[in-house]
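User: tokens in, sequence out, please.
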């Protein structure tokens, strides 16, 4: 039984928008157990034919402050490597969900929490949210492919600025950078994400899955 992550699938129709809810107050820090549960919940939602799209949500206070530093400080080198691998699996599981995904971001999305948000297809944020690739401030490099995902969203130069400095970015700058797709009032974040995800309720699931997979296909080399 999962303790911190829920896969919420509402009743009411042949095709619904589900929610992958991370709930580990007060900061939704990504412990090893949270990462395991994200991977499991993503797999569960990916297998359900009645789920048309998925909202990734950390609740109304905070999306995620990133990796759990108190836990990391107790780990030896081997355990820390395992924790980074589990984080990467969770991010990949969300990115690999064969459904459209929307991250509904409140409060903060920092470090690995930002990477998790970047694994969604789109990001909707409150206008008071703060973002940051803050791992360097703790003497770490981004895990879970965080730097590459950030570069894919904002471009390599701007990504390097954020990763090397660890600086915080407000929602307005995040929107200008292309880090988020929509900025709304803080108390309407989930509703805005639902409106975004609800556009896909009538699309055939196999077509959506194929369309999403097409973005990760490797182009065959040309020539003889």
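Assistant: Sequence out:
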């Amino acid at each position: 039984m999962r303790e911190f992550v829920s896969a919420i699938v509402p009743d009411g129709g042949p095709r619904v928008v589900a929610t992958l809810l991370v709930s580990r107050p007060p900061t939704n820090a990504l412990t090893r157990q949270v990462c395991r549960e994200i991977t499991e919940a993503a797999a569960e939602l990916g297998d359900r034919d009645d789920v048309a799209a998925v909202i990734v949500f950390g609740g109304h206070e905070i999306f995620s402050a990133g990796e759990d530093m108190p836990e990391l400080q107790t780990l030896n080198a081997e355990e820390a490597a395992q924790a980074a691998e589990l984080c990467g699996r969770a991010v990949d599981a969300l990115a690999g969900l064969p459904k459209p995904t929307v991250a509904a971001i409140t409060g903060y999305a920092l470090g690995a929490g930002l990477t998790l948000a970047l694994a969604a297809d789109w990001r909707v944020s409150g206008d008071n949210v703060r973002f940051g690739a803050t791992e360097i401030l703790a003497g770490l490099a981004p895990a879970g492919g965080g730097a590459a995902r950030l570069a894919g969203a904002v471009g390599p130069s701007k990504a390097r600025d954020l990763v090397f400095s660890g600086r915080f970015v407000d929602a307005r700058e995040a929107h200008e950078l292309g880090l988020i797709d929509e900025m709304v009032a803080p108390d309407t974040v989930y509703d805005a994400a639902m409106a975004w995800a609800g556009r896909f309720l009538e699309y055939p699931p196999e077509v959506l899955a194929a369309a999403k997979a097409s973005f990760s296909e490797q182009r065959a080399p040309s020539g003889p």
